[in-house]
User: Fold this.
Amino acid sequence: MQSYALKGGLDLSTSKAEVNPGTLLDCLNYEVSDRDGYTRIAGFERFDGQFRIAEFRSVRMRGELVSGSFLPGDEVITGGHSGFVTSGPRGAGWALYMLCHSRDPWPLELPATITNLSRDGSALVTAADLLPDPVGKQKVVNTARKALADAARPLVGLVPGNPDTPVAGVFWFKNRLYAIRDYPLIWFESAKQWPFRVGDQVTMPGGVYVVIAVHYTSQAYLAGYMVLWPLGQDGKPMTVAPRPGDQVTRPSQYFGFDTAGSAMGELPAAMMGPLSYGDGKATVTSPGESVQPENDDLSVRAYRTPAGLWKATASGWQPVDLKREAQFSSGTSAFGQFISTNIGIGAAPLQSGYKAGSKALLDGVDVTAEVAADDGSGAALTGNVSDELRVTGCELSAIPDTATILGIEVRVKRHADVGHKVEDYIAELIGIDGTSTNKARQVTWDTDETEVVYGGEDDLWGNDNLTPRTVKDAAFGFRLVTQAVDAVPQGAINRVSMQVYYRRRDAAIYVWTGTLDIPVNLVDAQLITGSYVDGDAAGWLVLDIPGASWAPSIGNGMQIRSAPAGGGDLLATVSSGDQPIRLPGWPDLQANRSQYRFLATNYYGMADYEAVYGVSGASPAFTYDGSRLLWIRTPVDPQQDLPRHIARHGASLVLGYYQGAYILSPPGDPLNFRGEDGAASIEIGQHLTNLMPAMGDALLVVGETKTLALHGTDADSYDQQTVSDNRGGIEYTGADIGRLLVADAVGIAAADATQAFGDLSRSYLSMKVQAWLKPRLQAVANGTMPLQQVVGAIAVRSKNQYRLYFRDGYYITGTPTAASGDTPEFTLQRYFATAGDPDMPDQPFPISTVGVGIDDLGRERIFGSFDADANRGYVFEMDHGTTFDGAPYLSYVVLNPLSFSDSVMLKRFDRMFVLGQAEGYAKVRLSRSVNYGVPDGTKAFPFTLGDPLASAGTFPARGVADAPIEGYEVTVRFESLSDVEGPHTLQAIGTDADPRGDSRGHVRG
Assistant:
């Protein structure tokens, strides 16, 4: 018996006579992980913020059986929790072990009745606690997980938007996922009577929509396309997709004034006042072929197809209000002072003052008066095992809608009666999106009245997404649940009050038409040219205009003043109509062959100033802090101010441009790129493809055929040095896994290697997979085989992995291990659906966007979306669950040939032992071929890795397959096809080979 450790990853280059038999000839959907061997990857599941589909709770319930029975596998329900029994009692008392879904509320309100839905059974639960792992047989746990996930999956929605385009971008920020997707769009022809305009309401079979952008492709406004926003549907997709031939109509009167000309650059100049015309009508037509990016030199263009930003919440995808923008000129010194005092970095933290609730219920009984006044007449506890107080409706209306919430503080005056003992059980915020930290104090209440403080000025209770609208909602408040320490707890709660700490980031200004005021909240002002001191400042305003529609509210030439009715200081003059802030859409990214790229960081000293900075290659850079999105415009020509790459260097924000330049903001001022303030611009002489922060103070700047390193911390000390004059990288392939890796037309290499040996300065780490990888990398370079082209790379830090994605759904994973040193071990994965027909191709799921973030529990979360008909518009959590969105997925490894160091001896290969790890067990199939033949799985021998009756948990596992065959060498394939099993790891094999004789050649006659 000979044993072989399974390690080393793919090796497609070493000769078959010398190759390590533990390496791979082929693989799919196995990876090198933190365990030795090859681990089957986890799947992906859709996500919209409500819950994680493959996240479950294991609960132990204790109490008393009332009737009937409970058996493993039974479906049960209790107190809003539905789930499955995984095990019965293991001790003398009555207990039940249950697996339920994480979307069910927790803690369980006790006492509670648990009911068996599979057979007659009922019990009273008096105690319930969470367990770190499921209890019971793994097979029962697997079945329960699948049933719970299958029930939850249809409840998750897609990102609203244009059904013909995928999600264009995702990012994780403050424990929240955000997604970017195009607005619904229709093509039309035969428009009659009058051109469609921004702000028009139009009706079609799918519903009523507002026109938010319109483009004409012919003269006389006869044909083009319009971008729409659904009315009264909370941004949901069209209920009925429009079809060619459908009629689009609009009302016969249009009020307001239109600035589509200045906003989009394609329609007549702004007009003001009511416009009368006949009913506008148009016919929906097909958009024709979608944009297919070419591989020749780009002609970059600013975006024309707008997209919106959506956030994943406990209620699913919700639209983010991106505010409006307009240009200003003639900005005065008074305006400069106004900005520094009232908005942005100069805004000081504020407090709401302590507010009592307008409604308080103790176990459902109104006790508002008792807990609102600090007069000693508190609300008495009922003497139950547990009491619940809910206080809501605190008067917080003075907090501006654009403020940033910094902390929540709740003060509770309470006492226990002499001779009685009471403790907190739950102390949490209610009426919020997401979860709240339980701040219960596990100490016995004092018998003297004591004021206890929960939270504080910088405490968000584990929820970074509290907004002014949340805390001002009537349902927002505080929940306190007590638990008895003695049989009849007695005590009282005298007063509950709440204070909110916030930072204001807007200020009221007044746009004066000469006869009337338009009240506006100024969210931000960006100076582009001139100075406030000289009175010639010009730039952009971000505005929150109450009641504004998609049509403009202010116009060119109006005054911006600090007081109403033309009073106060003249701050500036409006120099364009206002328009909604919109993001670039998918067709523009495709036309520019660009991607959304994001950077979450904090350039300031206060924690609440953390923000996401982003680029798209089709618009200026932007930043989003959770409540406002600001464009970061630079002195670059507006038609060329389309950065594609973003990084942080020291205290500066760095933007990289396709044309071959990168610009750095002044240190500590990421929104400012004015040279006179300390910004810098540096050119590299060729197209820029990647920006990567390196060790120390270095920034790695990668071009198509060169690599440079920037040192220094400001414009006076910047020093650009050459790393390699002849090696660059393919765009978007750079990633940091502890080493900076990048792919070029030859392979994957360390981008930060020094230039020590001329042409040999780059040592490729992917030589063992060049046969598979190189044709794909060169498809990018020469424009062939577009379905094999690179999408981009990410670093998965929790697995120390470099992942490089391709358009046909494949990605290659490189994982350095202790045995391999700095050289990664490579494996292949693919997102796809099998055709089910051998004559039909499989359906790939090409990645349209992928993002990585760390949640508040320290878990790395990976999210992505696909440009595929089967799942377009959904965002998925990767490396999560046991299915590809509910479907089983094929995984296999093919080992390099086993010859037992003797390739000229005919042998009989007998049974094979497989060693590894599994969640209980894994069903595996073995197939084999001899004499360098490659098994394809068509004739396979099933076996089980581990014990099918094993208890739940991950354990070392063994399996054996009897599959005798004769040959000089044997090549084996292990495959798995499952939608219920957790990941397993193949770590070693052992087999025997009996000699059958030497090969001495043929006798020639």
